[in-house]
Design brief:
Strands 2-1-3-4 form a 4-stranded antiparallel β-sheet, covered by helices on one side. Helices cover 16% and strands 41% of the residues. The protein has 85 residues and is of the alpha+beta class. The protein has a single domain, classed as P-loop containing nucleotide triphosphate hydrolases (Rossmann fold). It is built from 2 helices and 4 strands, in the order E-E-H-E-E-H.
């Protein structure tokens, strides 16, 4: 069963594109590892999943990120509840 679905995620720090066209799914009750060299975007991607990038001025996410079928970037998302889950 799919827990997280990411579709065409782009993430910007100001005008700088940090993540480009990320699409993937993460299954429930499975171990998923994000590996890569320093500076490749692993931490930025994880912060997109819990919306911690919202606290950084001048950032922007495009695309769709779903957690249990709900778009976490839709208006009205309770970010505190999202981070609890």
């Amino acid at each position: 069963m799919e827990k997280i679905r990411v579709e065409h995620l782009n993430f910007y720090y100001g005008q700088k594109l940090a993540l480009s066209d990320i699409s993937m799914s993460i299954q429930d009750r499975r171990i998923t590892a994000l590996i890569g060299p320093s500076g490749c975007g692993k931490s930025t991607f994880l912060r997109c999943l819990n919306r911690m990038n919202d606290t950084i001025r001048g950032t922007k996410a495009e695309g769709r990120v779903e957690f249990d079928g709900q778009d976490i970037y839709s208006p009205g998302t309770d970010v505190v509840e999202l981070r609890r889950r």
